[in-house]
Design goal:
Elements: H1 3-9, H2 35-42, H3 58-71, E1 75-79, H4 82-91, E2 99-103, H5 108-120, E3 124-128, H6 136-139, E4 144-150, H7 162-171, E5 175-179, H8 184-187, H9 190-193, E6 197-201, E7 215-219, H10 224-227, H11 234-237, H12 258-270, H13 276-308, E8 315-317, H14 327-333, E9 341-345, H15 349-358, E10 363-364, E11 374-377, H16 388-393, E12 400-404, H17 410-425
Helix pairs in contact: 1-13, 3-13, 15-17
Bound molecules: pyridoxal-5'-phosphate.
Length: 426
């Protein structure tokens, strides 16, 4: 089945009431009926369904299976936010004393998680220049657990060379993890390219209307082959004391391995689970994602082309501009567009402020992926916590403005920007 059909129909077997829409099963717990059934549920003999909503819920399960189908993966885990999805994807493989290798172009929250919180937990992060993936090789050592990068970097709006990064990850038997929030499974399916784990902030294009916070972790099919007997991933290959010595890479839940462990160890112990209500919102979002993301992308391309012609604009970043350093990678890796994200540079902070303070349709919001258009000054908001040095490395100047183009009429959006640009000239 094609993605458009999977997004609407997959994994829902109509319930007794034959409801066309998926029911929101707001329940904390489930009746086991007998003591034997309760004991076998806690022993994982019944799988992980219907034990306790912190580790699984039937509404969440439909979202998880649907995103796995859309990504071409074997399984998924829903989490309370995009940040918790990223955190769990790392915590699932790294301990104190370990290190990970990450792109230098990441969402600001991910950078602070990596440089501050992981550091406090004893996990070191080594950054590589995403435009020079060959740098990764010299950073790998025996304690390295993964290579982490984004499918489109935000706010520099660059694409990584997936194949080169995946080849290095495979050469060292390392997991590759990509934050695919911006491209969504409709524009790019990293697992089918050979990436091992995909994470999403569902709070963006998946919900589509800025209504809920949530995250998703999705794993590639046959991941067990890479993890089993791989000395880097002891968590998966040694007996787990909290499950009577269960060895994950041998257990019956495989081929769902990575998300299975994240669920029954990390969600069980730290509790960053998704509310079934939010899962239901994301299920609604997935139904229309394919048409929305194409409109976001076509609007954005039109606006990027217009921005390139404006005197006050020094540089425009959008992968499908022929001037973009990511143009060839975009043609290779993206289908149907490059999302609604554009960034562009103006002379200085004052010019940026005049534009932000005078647009009427765009709102100044620290978010992306809403149906409504958003304008943002990265250096003073999402990336405020970065040092001047880190800002420079991430390519964020004082005059950099990020747009998240919505699905309004593109001429109205251009006219809105044009009237704010006129005020700069006067
Ligand atoms: N990843 C990317 C690319 C993001 O832009 C964001 C938030 O802006 C996140 C992750 C974090 O997601 P959440 O806000 O759902 O925790």
């Amino acid at each position: 089945m094609e993605q458009e059909t999977l997004a609407i129909h997959s994994q829902y077997i109509k319930d007794r009431e034959r409801t066309m829409n998926i029911p929101i099963l707001m329940t904390t717990a489930y009746d086991f009926g007998t003591t034997d059934f309760a004991a076998s549920s806690f022993n994982l003999e019944q799988g992980t369904d219907n034990v306790y909503t912190r580790v699984g819920n039937p509404t969440n399960a439909i979202l998880e299976k649907r995103i796995a189908a859309l990504e071409g993966g074997s399984g998924a885990l829903a989490t309370s936010s995009g940040m918790s999805a990223i955190f769990y994807s790392i915590l699932n493989i790294a301990n104190s004393g370990d290190n990970i290798i990450a792109s230098n172009q990441l969402y600001g929250g991910t950078i602070t998680l990596f440089t501050q919180t992981l550091k406090k937990l004893g996990i070191t992060v080594k950054f590589f220049d995403v435009d020079k993936p060959q740098e990764i090789e010299s950073l790998v050592d025996e304690d390295t657990k993964c290579i982490f990068f984004e499918s489109i970097s935000n706010p520099s709006i660059d694409l990584p060379d997936f194949e080169k990064i995946i080849d290095i990850a495979n050469k060292f038997n390392l997991l590759s993890i990509v934050d695919s929030t911006v491209t969504t499974p409709i524009l790019c399916q990293p697992l089918l390219l050979g990436v091992d784990i995909v994470v999403h902030s569902a709070s963006k294009y998946i919900t589509g209307q800025g209504t809920a916070i949530g995250g998703l972790i999705v794993e590639r099919k046959n991941l067990v082959e890479k993890i089993k007997e791989n000395a880097r991933y002891k968590h998966f290959n040694e007996p787990e004391p909290s499950y009577k010595g269960l060895v994950f890479s041998d257990c019956p839940a495989t081929p769902i391995l990575f998300t299975f462990r994240a669920r029954i160890v990390l969600l069980r112990d730290t509790g960053g689970c998704l509310s079934p209500f939010n899962a239901w919102i994301f299920i609604q979002g997935l139904e229309t994602l394919s048409i929305r993301i194409k409109k976001h992308s076509s609007n954005a391309l039109e606006i990027a082309l217009w921005l390139e012609k404006q005197d006050i604009v020094k540089k425009v970043n959008y992968p499908f501009l022929t001037s973009s350093t990511s143009y060839d990678l975009a043609k290779k890796y993206l289908k149907d567009g490059a999302s609604g994200l554009i960034s562009f540079e103006v002379e200085n902070l004052d010019t940026a402020k005049t534009i932000l303070d005078n647009v009427k349709i765009f709102s100044i919001v620290a978010n992306i992926g809403d149906s409504k258009s958003i304008i943002n000054h990265s250096a003073s908001t999402t990336h405020q916590q970065l040092s001047p040095e880190e800002l420079k490395k991430a390519g964020i100047s004082e005059g950099l403005i990020r747009l998240s183009i919505g699905i309004e009429d593109s001429d109205d959006l251009i006219n809105d920007l044009a009237q704010a640009f006129e005020l700069v000239k006067n």
